[in-house]
């Protein structure tokens, strides 16, 4: 999935990536306890080889929840859909405002001050065309400030 111009994105079309159902398998990754969640999510942390332990049993989906809010294990099928990660500026807590000039044009990205994973409309469409299991795309509730709204 190639990058696109941030000006092509509407705030209301951004989606939050999460698991569809918490009754599916969830795994713990004990070695991550010593790392900052944001550094793990953005790839800034240099991680040792990781071993996951199933703590909540259930069916295995293409998106496997962990005990970290926005850190998931993904299947090889899922990784074929998602190839690009990016960043954007912080989301202002009051009103969930995001400056669209901070979007880097990636289809999957994380705000500078959160560990949530946001996906573009194009990525949403690509994910909805798949048969991936246990994947949910919920409205992110993000707005662009009025002066920059498109």
In short:
This protein has 150 residues and is an alpha+beta fold. It has helices spanning 37-42, 76-81, 121-128, and strands spanning 15-19, 26-28, 53-56, 63-66, 72-74, 86-88, 91-92, 97-98, 108-111, 118-119, 135-139.
Largest beta-sheet details = 5 strands, mixed
Number of DSSP strands? 11
Separation, N- and C-terminal Cα atoms: 23 Å
Radius of gyration: 16 Å
| Content-based structural category | alpha+beta
H/I helix tally: 3
Shape: globular
- What share of residues are in beta strands? 15-25%
Mean pLDDT: 84
Largest sheet strand order? 6-9-10-1-11
**Unreliable stretches covering 5 or more consecutive residues:** none
Structural features, described:
- By secondary structure, this protein is of the alpha+beta class.
- The chain is 13% helix and 25% strand.
- The protein is built from three helices and eleven strands; from the N terminus they run ββαβββαβββββαβ.
- It has helices at residues 37-42, 76-81, 121-128, and strands at residues 15-19, 26-28, 53-56, 63-66, 72-74, 86-88, 91-92, 97-98, 108-111, 118-119, 135-139.
- A five-stranded mixed beta sheet has the order 6-9-10-1-11.
- The mean pLDDT is 84.
